[in-house]
Amino acid sequence: QVQLVESGGGLVQPGGSLRLSCAASGFTFSSFHMSWYRQAPGKQRELVASISRGGITNYITSVKGRFTISRDNVRETVYLQMNSLEPEDTAVYYCRRVGDSATIPWGQGTQVTVSS
C-alpha cells in the first residue's frame, strides 16, 4: 500500500535551516506530482509546496525564496529544504501525493520547531 515516511524535523533557531525528507513506497513514485503540507498548532493544514512529475515547482507566498522542494525519482524521495526559518514555520510537516483523496491516510509527519 501507499507509504510516505517523513523525517528530518527538529528544533532550530530562527534563521536556521532544515532539510526534510519523505521516503515513498507502494506506488510508482515518478508518476505522481508530490507536495508538502504543514499544520501549525490550532490551525488548519495548509499546502506549502508542490512539485510536478517533471520537476515544476510551486510555493505559497510566505515560503517563496526560503524553501525549495525537490525530488529524486531513483531514491523515490521528495525533499523540502527550508532556509531562513521563522517561528511562524513551526508546524508538523507532511508529504502527500497531489490529488489523493481524504480516504488516503496521512503519514505521521515530522515536527519542525523554530525557537530561540
Identify low-pLDDT runs.
none
Structural category:
mainly beta
Report the radius of gyration as a whole number of Å.
Answer: 13 Å
- Strands ordered across the widest β-sheet: 2-10-9-4-5-6
Contiguous helical run count: 0
Question: How would a textbook summarize the main sheet?
Answer: 6 strands, mixed
Proportion of beta-strand residues: over 45%
Offer a quick outline of the entry.
The chain is mainly beta and 116 residues long. The chain is built from no helices and ten strands. The termini are far apart.
How would you explain this protein's 3D organization?
With 116 residues, the chain is mostly beta strands. Strand 5 and strand 6 (57-59) form a beta hairpin. It has strands at 3-7, 10-12, 18-25, 34-39, 46-51, 57-59, 67-72, 77-82, 91-97, 110-114. It has no helices and ten strands. The model has no long low-confidence stretch (mean pLDDT 97). The N and C termini lie far apart (40 Å). It has a six-stranded mixed sheet with strand order 2-10-9-4-5-6, with no helix packed on it. The protein has a four-stranded antiparallel sheet with strand order 1-3-8-7, with no helix packed on it. The chain is globular.
